[in-house]
Amino acid sequence: MARPNWFEELAENWFRMKGYLTQMHVPAPKVTKRRGPARILDLVAFNDQEFIMVELQTYVTRADAKRAIEKFADFNRIPSSASYKGTSKDKKIRRIFIGGATGNMATDFARLVRTHDIEFIEKEEFYKQIIGLIKPLADKQSWPYPDEFLARILYDMIDYELIK
Is the pTM for the entire model greater than 0.85? Predict the structure, then answer.
């Protein structure tokens, strides 16, 4: 299985800091009708109230919206492996796509995926939310996840006032 990229690791840190348990690179359930290799979801995050399926891409186009819709369709139910048994019972299920887009592209992409019950978070907003979580910790000189490399870099950038 491929190693997570920096964007996936950053998203995983974001969900963990918000109190979710996470797993990266989750294969589609075997009940899918799609032929060929199984699709892989970038990240799942869950807590006692929600089960969130997350797909990430650093830059998106209109064609990527169609691919995202198809990919999430393969995940129309929770992965059935033993590691997820009971994780979705009585929980809100959400689908989130985090990606880079600006202007009309962001608006078009968001409109296209929302019609399929997929939330779109633009990459810049995603960064702002992460910094919003990390900045108070940097200001207090406290750190809940010292081993998480990418989030630690952001923490240091805030601490050294490279990010305000």
Answer: no
